[in-house]
Amino acid sequence: MRRWLLILGLAASLWAAGSARADDRPNILWITCEDISPNLGCFGDSYAVTPNLDRLARQSVRYTEAFSATGVCAPARSSIITGMYACSIGTAQMRCKGAPPARMKEFPRYLREAGYFCTNHTKTDYNFDFSKETWDQNGRNAHWRNRKPGQPFFSVINFVTTHESQIRLPEDQYRERVADFTAAELHDPAKAAVPPYHPDTPAVRKDWARYADMITFMDKQVGGVLKQLEEDGLADDTIVFYFSDHGAGMPRSKRWLYDSSTRVPFMVRFPGKFAATAPAKPGGTTDRLISFVDLAPTVLSLAGVDAPAMMQGSAFLGPKAGAPRTHVYAFRDRMDERYDMLRSVYDGRFRYIRNYRPDLPWFHHQYISYLYEMPTMQDWERLSGEGRLQGPTALFMADSKPTEELYDVKADPFEIRNLADAPEHRETLRKLRAEHERWRKEVLDLGFLPESDLRARFGDEPPYDAARRDRSLYPFDRIAATADLACERKAANLDELANRAGDDDPAARWWALTGIGMLGAAAEPASKTVEAALDDPGPAVRVAAADALARLGRADEAVKTLVDVLAHSPREWARLAAVNVLDRLGVRSDAAKAAFEAARDDGNDYVKRVVEHALKSTGRKK
Q1: Which end of the chain is more exposed for a tag (fewer CB within 10 A), N or C?
Q2: pLDDT-derived band of residue 619, with 50, 70 and 90 as boundaries?
Q3: What is the C-alpha separation between 580 and 607, in angstroms, rounded?
Q4: Which helix (H) or strand (E) segment is 546 a member of?
Q5: Helix, strand, or coil here: 130?
Q6: d(CA 548, CA 521)
Q7: pLDDT, tens digit, for every residue of 466-497?
Q8: Residue 6 pLDDT
Q9: Strands 266-269 and 285-286, how do they pair?
Q10: What CA–CA distance (Å, rounded) separates 282 from 193?
Q11: Residue 197 near residue 393, CB atoms below 8 Å
């Protein structure tokens, strides 16, 4: 345990800076962890064993309404480091290697320019290649101790020990991790609080217990960092933030937009000399809404640095603090090898979710290989196949999603009662729908472009820049309106969707054909339109047309187009879209099997993951 508590691995010889201060600007320390919701004792979770964080909370202000911009790490970190929504700059897809705006600087660069020593230990995962100028030090040896005497610092220390993968550690590694735990620190699965959307099985309880064990281990690590700060005589000069990168790393939390997915534990400790900037006394709370896009401008504000106008967040502390926000927004696009698109708005009580691909399920037939390594997910899928689920546990194994979801989070914290069709909440639905539509246009959400189109449409120019330089390059209103028609899944929209399938813009055509496909057999009158689109110059459009044709009962014809895209398209994300449809169709034709075999060597790892699942499903895995 001692070597884990000293995970930073820094000997006293690394000390390079005394506690003397050259100015009165605060040091700023971020202690972050991964994949946890507010499951800490100080946030009211009686199951949790978190003495160090509970002690920190008594010295801090707890933010009870703090949210990640999405439910997974890389797009969340992209939003943090830029102060901009990843869906606005084209980095919302998981591990996508996007191109951020040309004028954008990762916010630590502004701190460095102002004289701060900036370190990151150790995770980046920003979804783009970041500048070498971002950090003075980045890696396992990065530490505030390496700064010049008296130099203010901004330091990030991130712990991965609560990550999703750690819940399912092999037994020997788990035993090593908790070897020094007392009996009181180990969490009894029998006492775990299983949320109503999870089946209550021994495997699920074990996962929740080990999730809590990993939090306790992380709590000890946090205690070690705070002890270092004290030993260095810096606690009185340092504002300390603690938070997680998004919600719990359990199925139906991570990767989605629910409260369990995006709400995070968040607290800030203000030493006495900086107490005036605190929103409450030590041990107090604030219900001010904050989003991860607010973190960058907030740190700059505390350091006395102006945030650039292009940042989309607003400072919530320091002299540059803005007015409290009234809503927080979140997004989801591709997660690993599977496509989907969701957006959400939360107003402090109600959460609205728009499912732009309601035809796709939450889980069933949306196999994400990494997710399905979790025993909870395996049990859930097995029980679904056996027809043994009911209520909320069955709901999230449905074959499709509603177009809109609305939850009263205060009355229904697990978000299992969708109020979107409730007459008494019609006005709330209307307001939050309108707020979502206002926000998506304000940030010029690039998620309305198929990923293969997004990566090719603007050439070498960053998408954020090109879309604003020439609005004709991204006719957002027309594309978003077509998406709205599509996700309504109304047969009355068929004629208009067929008309829009001839739009000059490939993204509008893609949405139109996707909407036609969502109608299934009811779209038969538009079959000629679908057939014509099989020859579209855009590979994403051809995939959407093939998908629609298959849903009209003509899978054999659709497979020819899908196989052609998988085998020959130079656009890797078009190939991923094609293999996703092929896998969903479950086709067993010789042509499809041959294409799967050939794609084992595809340059995109996500394509290979879907191929392996498809081959296993067809019984042809080698």
Answers
A1: C
A2: low
A3: 8
A4: helix 539-551
A5: coil
A6: 10
A7: 999 999 999 999 999 999 999 999 999 999 99
A8: 39
A9: unpaired
A10: 29
A11: yes
Amino acid at 481: A
Catalytic, out of 73, 87, 96, 487:
73
Is 73 catalytic? The answer is yes
Mean pLDDT of 557-579: 97
Q: What is the Cα–Cα distance from 389 to 608, expressed in whole angstroms?
A: 31
* C-alpha to C-alpha distance for 397 and 201, rounded to whole angstroms: 16
Nearby residues of 465 by Cβ (< 8 Å), 6 or more positions away: 101, 102, 103
Tell me if the pTM is above 0.90. Answer: yes
Q: Are strands 328-332 and 342-346 parallel, antiparallel or unpaired?
A: antiparallel
Contact between 541 and 500 under an 8 Å Cβ cutoff? The reply is no
Enter the DSSP assignment of 150: T
Q: Which stretches of 352-461 are DSSP H helices?
A: 375-385, 392-395, 426-442, 451-457
**Beta bridge partners of residue 243, listed in sequence order:** 32, 266
Q: Work out the widest C-alpha separation in the chain, in whole angstroms.
A: 77
Long-range contacts of 412-417 (CB under 8 A, 24+ apart): 413/259, 414/195, 414/196, 414/197, 414/259, 414/260, 415/258, 415/259, 415/260, 415/351, 416/196, 416/197, 416/391, 416/392
Tokens of 128: 């783009």
Q: For residue 165, what are its two tokens?
A: 């993968």
Which one, of 505, 295, 296, 330, lies nearest residue 409 by Cα?
330
Write the CA distances from 456 to 93, 482, 577, integer angstroms: 15, 21, 15
d(CA 216, CA 36): 12
pLDDT at 620: 44
Supply 403's token pair: 């177009």
